[in-house]
TrEMBL record:
<dbReference type="InterPro" id="IPR035940">
    <property type="entry name" value="CAP_sf"/>
</dbReference>
<keyword id="KW-0812">Transmembrane</keyword>
<keyword id="KW-0472">Membrane</keyword>
<feature type="domain" description="SCP">
    <location>
        <begin position="38"/>
        <end position="153"/>
    </location>
</feature>
<feature type="transmembrane region" description="Helical">
    <location>
        <begin position="12"/>
        <end position="31"/>
    </location>
</feature>
<keyword id="KW-1133">Transmembrane helix</keyword>
<protein>
    <submittedName>
        <fullName>Cysteine-rich secretory protein family protein</fullName>
    </submittedName>
</protein>
<dbReference type="Pfam" id="PF00188">
    <property type="entry name" value="CAP"/>
</dbReference>
<dbReference type="InterPro" id="IPR014044">
    <property type="entry name" value="CAP_dom"/>
</dbReference>
Length: 156
């Protein structure tokens, strides 16, 4: 399932949504040796956008969301009451423009990236000109160890 959110100072705009929340097993980051920064920044360069830099705060937020989705075995921006996107942004001290891409069932960085590339809302998040930082994480559930849940977070 897919979903993404863009949050600006003036409004909260849901482009599309369906997420899974969980606290499953953490997979070592990108064991497939793919570089997510190169993938997303190549796209941004092709579209006259500045590069994104990895951000440890966003990586923690992404890991938290990927774990929640894996535990719940579903993809959603809000898994439970009190765990919506805005609340999670506040929890991690993030203010201003922010966005989130989620997906599941893809085992590699490039496979998740391709899902987002083929979804207008997700692609829009990856190209949003005001974003300068991102965090990407993945997780699995002990119940489905080969099914990967992905979360990608963005901010100014």
């Amino acid at each position: 399932m897919l979903g993404d959110i863009v949050l600006t100072r003036r409004n909260f705009f849901v482009l599309s949504g369906a997420f899974i929340v969980g606290t499953g097993g953490i997979i070592p980051a990108f064991a497939d040796n793919e570089d997510p920064t190169s993938l997303i920044n190549a796209l941004r360069a092709q579209n006259n956008r500045g590069p994104l830099a990895p951000d440890s705060q966003l990586e923690k937020m992404a890991q938290d969301q990927a774990n929640l989705m894996a535990d719940a075995q579903r993809v959603a921006h809000t898994i439970s009451s009190g765990n919506d996107f805005v609340t999670r942004l506040r929890k991690f001290g993030i203010h201003g423009a922010a966005g989130e891409n989620l997906c599941a069932g893809r085992s590699t960085v490039s496979a998740a990236y391709n899902v987002w590339m083929n979804s207008p809302g997700h692609r829009s998040n990856m190209l949003y000109p005001s974003f300068h930082y991102y965090g990407l994480a993945k997780a699995t559930s002990p119940k489905r160890p080969n099914y990967v849940y992905w979360a990608m977070e963005f901010k100014r």
